[in-house]
């Protein structure tokens, strides 16, 4: 008899969960996959075109491809940080979605945004602590992986 009551309770919970799911679906907006993808493609492409244009200009002025690529990377990071500080990057991100988040500019934004949010807590505990809240684990993982790969490469070439 105890199993019968438990089974009835489980069935009632399942029915309630299904009804709630139907209720939520009524009010959940349907995502516009095509338009979102198109916006991401266009904005991400414009970022890449701008970077390529700057790199081409630098190469025409005599810089090597490697040096101009490094400059463009720094330029993109600094631009994203500046636009984040001015509050413009969030607007671009809301419009373009992954088109602005995936390139290196998204990483720069994710470092600066928490620092700006916590700046009222002071330079050290606010900005300094939050600046690396996302970047810290990414950097640790990247550096650790590169050390392991370097050691494996060294062992193979002994």
Distance between the termini: 72 Å
| Rg result | 24 Å
- Biggest β-sheet description: none
Question: How much of the polypeptide forms β-strand, as a percent range?
Answer: under 5%
Write the H/E string, N to C: HHHHHHHH
Q: Structural class of the helix and strand makeup?
A: mainly alpha
Principal-axes shape call: extended
Number of strands: 0
Q: How helix-rich are the residues, as a percent range? A: over 70%
On the 0 to 100 scale, the average pLDDT is: 82
Count of alpha and pi helical runs: 8
Which residues sit in consecutive blocks of at least 5 with pLDDT less than 50? Answer: none
Describe the protein's topology.
Layout: H1 2-27, H2 33-60, H3 65-86, H4 88-96, H5 98-101, H6 104-117, H7 123-131, H8 135-156
How would you sum up this structure, described in words?
With 158 residues, the protein is an all-alpha fold. The chain is built from 8 helices and no strands. The chain has helices at 2-27, 33-60, 65-86, 88-96, 98-101, 104-117, 123-131, 135-156. The termini are far apart. The model has no long low-confidence stretch (mean pLDDT 82).
Keywords:
158 residues; mainly alpha; 8 helices
In short:
The protein has 158 residues and is mostly helical.
